[in-house]
Request: fold
Amino acid sequence: MTSPPAKLGDPILRVESISSTNDMARDLALSGAAEGLCVIAREQTSGRGRQGRSWSSPPGEGLYMSLVLRPEVEASQSALITLAAAIAVAESLRLDFDVHGDIKWPNDVLVNGRKICGILVEAAIERNRLQYAVMGIGVNVGQLLFPEQVRDNATSIMLETGRAIEPDDFAQAMLPRLDHWYAAALSQPDRVITRWEELSSSSHDSLVRVESADTVIEGLTRGLTAAGALVVELSNGERCEIVSGEVKVRPMSS
Reply:
């Protein structure tokens, strides 16, 4: 009889200050840490987000966590894991803290158009198979002020609700949801796609501009593919599948 898979967040390693929880989790993964191990820091001195951006991580004001994952999947399926994380965060915001979390492809969680959560999944791949992945999740919980470069585009649970909660409160609410949707990503990917689309106001019929290293396209969103790519319909009717790039939702002309 095989034992059930480890729950995500078992065990939790807590540190006071660290450069990046993703770096620590990666080192632990390389040392053989089992799936589910979670690193939570009170402060990050060099937190980072997608596309090389920094992530503001002042002491005690946000949830800064990373998890070791060892999914037995091909690299092409890893996008679904990222989508699952965004679902877990958005659901926790909505159902546990009465904050209307909205997902922008692929995994930015917004409230009233401002970013409240960033998710960064970094994976080691060999022969198109994931050896391990590190999932970093940063949630703005108690921040009242942000660095000037992100001040107009960021928010927090405190700013949205006026309620003071501890970052651990959010972690304890979110981890069971993350465990659920991570398992779904591996066994029922269609459920992940459906739920992601339900939680994203821009998944269908939104005008977007997608910027990547060598191209810029504009068109209307038409949902996700089974693998989690964003479908964008161009003005000539052609449909493109977006697997990477920066998506900006644009207002529709009247």
Summary: Residues 12-199 form a domain with the BirA Bifunctional Protein; domain 2 fold (CATH 3.30.930.10). The longest strand covers residues 114-126. The mean pLDDT is 89. The first helix runs from residue 21 to 30.
